[in-house]
Amino acid sequence: MHRPPTVQAVLGAVLTLGVALSLAVAGPVLAHGIGGKDAAFVASSAGAHIAPFLYLGAKHMVTGYDHLLFILGVIFFLHRLRHVALYVTMFSLGHSATLLAGVLLGWRANPYIIDAIIGLSVAYKAFDNLDGFKTLFGWTPDTRLMVLVFGLFHGLGLATKLQELQLSRRGLAINLVSFNVGVEIGQLIALSLMLGLILLWRRSSGFARQATLANVLILTAGFVLMQEQLAGYFIHRGA
Amino acid sequence: MTVSAEGHAAHPPSRRKLALLVGGGFLAASLITVCAVLPAEFHIDPTGIGAATGLMGLSAAPEARSAPASTGAAQPGAAPVLAREYPAPFRSDTIDIPLKGADSQGSELEYKVRMKPGATLVYSWSVQAPPEEFYYDFHSQQLPSPGPKEVVISHKSGIGVGGNGALVAPFEGIHGWYLQNQSLKPVVVHLKLSGFYELLPGGQPPT
Prior knowledge:
Chain A is mostly helical.
């Protein structure tokens, strides 16, 4: 049975392809840090700056394709708003905990390893979406728990990026909370957009088949992210 | 429907198809990494595709591009470079240049230093002479000259007994002062230099 692709199908395909394939051309080595004038601002700011750090947090999330791909994977097959809220809360709890604790306690993780794990989290969720664990191993790890655990790593990544800039101790707690709230706002914005597009896409007849392909693309993108970061780790380890 | 049943494909692919898809995905990812990401990000090109497509230029660029920016002259139309770094060592010199009275040989002199394009010199000079009887011309001369015509840029000239300032060399060459004592008494010019340059013997250009 062959039907011309609907608007929704095209939208959906563009969404996934866009996010997944932009990896091939985008991407400075450190998946994405806080750069340029933003970094200069952070380094020069002592004292509380609520609005700028809110904005930086939101921007970091909205422009962070590694975080976005993971969220896309998480919500891909969620149908009820209650479930979307539950999984996103798990993710937020995870990354908030390590972002706050990481910066306040000065945890320094190797950014390549953290980013490789974040890449792995993208691949994990796409594999999980395809029900790969049940099909291949007959057992599926609890998705809620996995989203929480990977959320912890995403937060550690955020904490590491933020600490690469010289954060002033003055007003640190307020700035940090502002950044974190900004991350959640940015996540909500990105989530709403992706959810809207997915809902449209699901109405098209070809969704089931396209969804498999889309998740294979997300899986591939996750592997690329992971391999790039591992390459960075091994290449720069000696330096 | 329970929570754990949500979040998965309604019709997941079969075991065989899944293995193919995941394997294919990993293979595609590895191809992208080896052919595109490694050359573009890390300047490693195992396949030669990076060199053929110019992707290698992305990772070679930072060092290659910063070299002329750090020592080179300003590109036309480019934003002004506000901060510069030089591989050459920083140096400071204080030089006393005696000039005889205007009625004898040795009342005038060219004192110059050699500089790379973009290099910076900070200077201060003064002379104890009657204010109306000393002439100077601060200028840059390109070396080696590209053609029969000499390239000389005069920065400042006139009657005066001192000056403080800085120069960013517009090109490789010799940069400095023509000094002329117009009074009848001998004078000494005190010149202080700091920056990135080489002294020329006697302050004279090699002829």
